[in-house]
Amino acid sequence: MAAPRGLRRHAAASACPLLLAFAVLLALPGLAAGVTRRYTFNVGMTSVTRLCGTKSIPTVNGQFPGPRLDAREGDRVVVTVHNRMSRNVSFHWHGIRQLRNGWADGPAYITQCPVQPGQSYVYDFTVTGQRGTLWWHAHLSWLRVHLYGPLLILPELGVPYPFAAPYKEVPILFGEWFKADTESVISQALQTGAGPNVSDAYTFNGLPGPTYNCSSSKDTYTLKVRPGRTYMLRLINSALNDELFFGIANHTLTVVEADANYIKPFTVTTLVISPGQTMNVLLTTSASPSSQSQSFAMAIAPYTNTQGTFDNTTAAAVLQYDAPTPPSSTQNLPLPALPRYNDTSAVASFTSNFRSLASAQYPARVPQAVDRRVLFTVGLGTDPCPSNQTCQGPNGTKFAASINNNSFVRPRSALLEAHYQRRYAGVLMANFPTTPPHPFNYTGAPPNNTFVAHGTRVVPVKFNTSVELVMQGTAIQGAESHPLHMHGFNFFVVGQGFGNYDPINDPAKYNLVDPVERNTVSVPTAGWVAVRFLADNPGVWLMHCHFDVHLSWGLSMAWMVDDGPLPNQKMLPPPSDLPKC
Q1: Any idea of its EC number (predicted)?
Q2: Which is it for strands 406-408 and 453-455: parallel, antiparallel or unpaired?
């Protein structure tokens, strides 16, 4: 079906913002409630030119970024994927819980075998109890650098936002552009053991903008706005390997949603967003901009503490006010003041603002009692260099990454199918360590032996278990943050801090009243984060770092959640067109 028209808000002044929001949502075109929305993904190669270079990239329906999917809470979404490439592919609907329906979740070799060249697969899922900004992306190797797009979920028909309705809603996807072929980049890195080459530019909706050499005005994203209006920017960090600062010169942003969960609003001039995360922010334009100031720069730049190389550039886009005479040039607009690339204190200050709405309509259902406590160390490590080659990782080794010193090995068949058939031998081991096998001073001097273990290991969990998971960053190969994404669940971020987690004193500082609910959280640089979730979704669910370089090095694991006793607590049977390996 054709995507509905833009979610435009013709909002006059109103004494009752919530009534206005109610009226506007009722009037949205093409989005009746509780219906089936069908989309088709033709996946093929398309020639795209950026930075004066043309290359052939994977696209959906010839679009880069890919098409926008619109739905309402309660809708059924059916996406038919036809793979017309010469390589395998699969798609993940990032943040959709996929209740009992892991077959539609998408990570290759976890919930499905990939869709092979010339084959098709239908992703069929229902959006249950969720509304807000999510996104979709490929989930195999580094294909998501080009294969991604927004997945926008409106509230049920007649249900207003918990804030005044914006005049217009605008999805903005942050990304990365590589001049080189990204599959060759990661393939070479895995072969040599070195860190991969970094991107050449960051992008706004696929466009690098005016700060890069050989990037013309047509490669600059421009958001045209009217004075005195409120716009809701649906921000998505679809970058491959970088957390990003974002700001708009001379404007403030009010954050109202995180990972498709409403939060208590707070206002900032700069925000930071990790790969995989989404945020809805309200931007209110000046009621009377001066004739000399009709255009303002929007900018993104990296946040990182890596000891390796990274793309230390700034991408810009343009916020342009409606004016009788458009500006002659937007090439030299002053950039917003963003924090320095390694400003961890700015990140911590921003992160501390997030609180769930925790209202009667949108309660924060934080598990108050815990059935099972798990401690994961998260970080880098090394593998020994094979005897017949020279490696370019630390001290002649190969880079690796792990959780509790286990570097995940991708299976040759899908874990979910093996679990459904109770056919585990030779596919997975249900012995993933739930505490660090070799305790050490995690944020201090690294141990002498930094080699990791390898295995396709999962953590088995009984249905309806309340889990507290503490993720502890390590300083092996340098301390840096790690954005961890959990499939199949949201979780509540009940605590975080720097240094080593203290199981005696730190829990007393937890927020169990209104912690933010997310699907992706960054483990702080040289710190820890504690989350709680209820294992009420049977299936096999991947959890991984959303830096794809770390995912490629093995920084992932899976939760294997048993069926419950009731019929509506058991996995659905697999679809008839489930791909074969």
Answers
A1: 1.10.3.2
A2: parallel
